[in-house]
Write a structure and sequence with these properties.
161 residues; alpha+beta
Length: 161
């Protein structure tokens, strides 16, 4: 009887060890997926992050921002135009859904930040729906909201004030 109990205990121990190894592999894969989202961003993607951060800075409660979609338009070598569909908390505590249209200058990512960042108004601005819809702006491209929101720290908007 003791032999059966010992064999049973050893079997359960091995089973638990095997399950533990499976969980550690899952942890490793989640670390890898985090590293994937911290990828090298294109200027277009950085401009999308910048537009979301500007939107967030203008909200009464920035932490209430929930972005539903981010779409952009750009013809190579020109400014970046964005439409961000979102919801946020207003002054009265109610949730409001809206669209934010924004233009980010192509010059914002210049290598000489001191010269370029003299004024945010010169480099980027709120735009109207008709400005966004102009055909010459190019085709509309969708962005992965989760990746943009998870990487808001790649742009320091304090530099732009």
């Amino acid at each position: 009887m003791k032999k059966i109990a010992i064999v049973l205990i050893i079997s359960i121990s091995l089973l638990l060890c095997a399950c533990g190894n499976g969980n550690s592999n899952k942890a490793d894969s989640s670390i890898e997926s985090t590293e994937v989202t911290k990828k090298e961003f294109t200027e277009y993607e950085k401009a999308a992050v910048f537009a979301v951060k500007i939107l967030q800075e203008h909200l009464k409660n920035p932490h209430s921002l929930e972005v539903y979609s981010i779409h952009g338009k750009n013809v190579e070598g020109e400014d970046y135009y964005f439409k961000i569909e979102y919801s946020a908390t207003n002054n009265l505590g109610g949730t409001v859904e809206d669209k934010f249209y924004y233009c980010v200058s192509k010059d914002i990512f210049s290598s000489d930040e001191k010269e370029v960042f003299n004024g945010k108004a010169i480099l980027s601005k709120s735009i109207s729906l008709s400005d966004y819809l102009e055909d010459r702006r190019g085709d509309e491209k969708g962005f992965d909201v989760q990746i943009i929101m998870d990487n808001l720290d790649i742009i320091n908007t304090e530099v732009y004030d």
